[in-house]
Amino acid sequence: MILFLLGLFGLLGAAGVSELHRQEHAAAEAFHAKLGPESKVRVRFTPSGLASLHGDLAAVRVQATHFSLAGFPFFVDPDAPKDGRIKRLQLNLVNGTVNGYLVDRFEAELPAVHYDFHKASLERETVISECGEGKFSLRMSGVSLMRAAGRKFSFLKNPSCRITKGRIYFSAVFGTQSFSLDGTLAVEDGKKLVLTDPHLESSFDQPTRTTLLALSRVLFDVDKDFASPGVLTLEQVEPREGELRITGRIKLPLRPKDQLLIGATNRK
Questions:
Q1: Nearest to 1 by CA among 41, 23, 34
Q2: Rounded percentage of the chain residues whose pLDDT exceeds 70
Q3: N or C: which end of the chain has fewer CB within 10 A?
Q4: What does the pLDDT read at residue 74?
Q5: What CA–CA distance (Å, rounded) separates 117 from 185?
């Protein structure tokens, strides 16, 4: 289901600033219902002059805090009409979770979004029929990474994490012994964050050291851990003081055949 376009119904063909704000408020309420009871949502539409009467919008901006998503449930239905257009679809999601993983900030911009204008204006339902490939950035703090490590590596006890001077530092208990592990991060296959140049301090024997390094090599798999296969492609990871910043490309997938609700196809 397309969460961030539900507020378009009613705007199309409406006139006046008050009607614009009313529809923005209605859209925010729809997002709130989808993003969880703790979410706070704000939606802003930027019209394209008179062209807005025919479903042409310059931008749609969605801002949300304390959100909760099972994945990125945004799809494209390539068979739907393409008479409506949004030049820029912008997402700004702060302090929430994706598939249970803490996300401090997720920002994305998708260009050239086309949708079924007739369905949106008459049936109060928006179906994306085409969408360009966009850019995204994702930020996770040391606390968020620590909780992610505790969830992903459940065999570890008392994990802690910090990010400083371009390296990531972990400490935890494995079995009955404590250890510390640090290294740099790199993107692998556009989907994984892997630990490179690892430095392990422990009293483990060599087989245990080898096993631990192998188990902790892949810190994050965006397809599996975010339950969103094919949506995000990682390009760059940048450890900053106290946080990790990841940038890359976002591409909405085709609607699953067994899903009757809103879906999406991609256009570069």
A1: 34
A2: 81
A3: C
A4: 74
A5: 44
CA distance 164 to 155: 25
- Convert the pLDDT of each residue in 125-163 to its tens digit: 667 899 999 999 999 988 888 888 778 888 888 888 888
* β-strand pairing of 84-98 with 101-115: antiparallel
Cβ contacts of 51 within 8 Å, gap of 6 or more: none
Q: How far apart, in whole angstroms, are the C-alpha atoms of residue 228 and residue 230?
A: 6
Beta strands across the sheet bearing 192-201? 156-164, 167-174, 177-188, 192-201, 218-221
The ranges assigned to domains in the chain are 3-133+262-267, 143-220+239-245
Q: Is pLDDT above 80 for 183?
A: yes
Structure-block tokens of residue 84: 């409506």
- pLDDT tens per residue across span 24-42: 776 677 677 777 788 898 9
Give the pLDDT of residue 179: 93
Half-sphere exposure of 178 (CA within 13 A, CB side): 7
Q: Helix, strand, or coil here: 35?
A: helix
pTM for this model (two decimals): 0.81
- List all residues 6 or more positions away from 239 whose beta carbon is below 8 Å from its beta carbon: 163, 166, 167, 168, 184, 185, 245
- Of 221, 216, 218, whose CA–CA distance to 233 is shortest? 221
| CA–CA dist 16, 171 (Å, integer) | 58
Residues in the chain: 268
- The answer on pLDDT for 263 being more than 50 is no
Whether the CB-CB separation of 91 and 108 falls below 8 Å is answered with yes
Long-range contacts of 151-155 (CB under 8 A, 24+ apart): 151/100, 151/101, 152/219, 152/220, 152/225, 153/215, 153/216, 155/215
